[in-house]
Structure formats: structure tokens, C-alpha cells
Amino acid sequence: FDLNSEANARRIAMVESCFGSSGQPLGVPGRVLVGEGVLTKMCRKKPKARQFFLFNDILVYGNIVINKKKYNKQHIIPLEEVKLESLEDDGQFRNGWLIRTASKSFAVYAATSTEKQEWMAHINKCIEDLLRKSGKKAVEVHAAVWVPDSEAAVCMHCKKTQFTVLNRRHHCRKCGAVVCGPCSNKRFLLPSQSSKPLRVCLNCYDTLSRARVQQNNMGNPTDNSLIKDGKERSGSGDSSGEEDSDEEDEANRSQHESSAHDEPTFYGMSEGVQEDPSKH
């Protein structure tokens, strides 16, 4: 009878109950909750507090609806796809790093440099252990980090179009730049991100198209059924992941903005580690 595995099962059940029916079940054999805490995630419009849960095989995060009691908009990221990249401190944005995956990449910030080091060390250790056990190679290609809306008053491609309520900002799925509609009216298939062709800027479209022509010329034909992406399609009936699914409606009044800072909790990872009662 292992005290530690019972404590772990209790913690995982607790996380599940905080997400309620809006989340997926998280308890699977062999899964361990390694740590949890609040990080600031750079979203499209502004930085927002998100609750993160690090397991030995996945990273889960969600919006904080009621502090420490209820979360929604659950996102699950398989750790074997993840690559971390430290960010330099820049003005108010300090203690940050990138979480890169094949389908989505974003920046997060911890409250202190110690917490940043702890988070990065724990996540990297989980990734290393996973890859070692599975014998898989780390993923080579990662999605671009989106430039935040606030950093682009004009289109980053034509440098002319000013963004307004009518002239909406769009993001190139290949390079992450903020571009206007006409400068991103082409689609290209990026298989690591979606099975549908996605919005890309004209620069990336040209580069990707040239690369594909080269590939075909080298007698390495791509599946022609995939080449449905040159279609000029604008308008807002756009199902290609246009909205960042992480944006919740701003009417989320009880968003956790408390000034008291909860430090993250990391649990012992090895099987024999006793629970530290002072952590609770």
C-alpha cells in the first residue's frame, strides 16, 4: 500500500473536480501530478492569469473562474511535443519562457525568477524522462508564437493597412505575424497544426509554395489531394482556427486578480517520496 500513490490519486481527482464537466478525465494509470500553480499567459489581446498543472506526461492549463476552486477552458498539451525556450526579461515582462509545440506556441511568465527556474526544470525533466522511456525523438518543427495584437497598429506585411474595428487583425499560422485580410487571403496546409488549410501571410505562402514545387521537382510528390489551398477566401465565415480558442469573453468578472501571490506547489516525483505535509 503506497501512501504516495494514494496522495497522487487524490490530487488528480481534485484537479478533475475543479474543471467539472467542462474538462476531460485526467486519471490514467501511471500518471503523476508533478506540480501546479498560476502563470501569466500571453494571449492575443493581453497577458492573462492561467492555472497550470504539470503531470509527468501532459501539461494542462485553464482559465481561473473562482480562485483555486473552479477552472474552465481546459487545454491539454502532450509533453513529448513540448520544447521550452527561455526569454530575456523585457520591461514589465520578466521571468518568462516559451512553451513550443507543433500545433501551438505561446509565452508564459512566472512571478519570480526562482519560480521560473523551478517550472522550467520540472517540465524539462518530465520531457526528458518521457522521451527516454518512449525512445522517441523530440519534435523538430514547432508552431510560431503569435505576435500580440497590441504590438501591431498596422499590418506587418504591407505596412500600410491600419487596424480598426472593421479592419480586423489576423495571424499568419506559419510565422505568427499580425496581418490584414488582403495580406492573408491565401491558405496553406500545415499538417502539424490542422487537417484543413490555414491562413498564412503572402510572404509565407510564396515561400511554402516554392518549397513544395521544389519538392515535387525532386521527384518527391506531395499528395495532390492536399493542394486545395490557393483558394482566395475572405469573409468571416472562417473555420480555420481563426480565433484563439483561449480568449474567453471579457465578462469573466471573477477572474483571479488577487494581489496575494500563491507560490507554485511541486510534489515529489519519485515513487518513494513521502508527501510533505507543510505544502498543504
UniProtKB/TrEMBL annotation:
Region (Disordered) residue spans: 215-280
Compositional bias per record (Acidic residues), positions renumbered to this chain: 240-250
Assigned keywords, A-Z: Endoplasmic reticulum, Endosome, Membrane, Metal-binding, Protein transport, Transport, Zinc, Zinc-finger
One Gene Ontology CC term in the entry: endoplasmic reticulum
GO biological process, one term: endosome to lysosome transport
FYVE-type domain: residues covered: 149-209
Domain PH: 32-128
Gene Ontology molecular function terms on file: phosphatidylinositol binding; zinc ion binding
Cellular localisation: Early endosome membrane; Endoplasmic reticulum
Composition bias, Polar residues: 215-225
Superkingdom of the organism of origin: Eukaryota
CDD domains in alphabetical order: FYVE_PKHF, PH_Phafin2-like
Pfam families the record matches: FYVE, SOS1_NGEF_PH
Residues in the signal sequence: none
Compositional bias segments (type: Basic and acidic residues): 226-235, 251-264
Record's keyword annotation contains Zinc: yes
Membrane topology, from the record: Peripheral membrane protein
Keyword rRNA processing: no
PANTHER family, sorted: PLECKSTRIN HOMOLOGY DOMAIN-CONTAINING FAMILY F MEMBER 1 HOMOLOG (PTHR46280:SF3), PLECKSTRIN HOMOLOGY DOMAIN-CONTAINING FAMILY F MEMBER 2-RELATED (PTHR46280)
Function: May play a role in early endosome fusion upstream of RAB5, hence regulating receptor trafficking and fluid-phase transport. Enhances cellular sensitivity to TNF-induced apoptosis.
Protein name, UniProt field: Pleckstrin homology domain-containing family F member 2
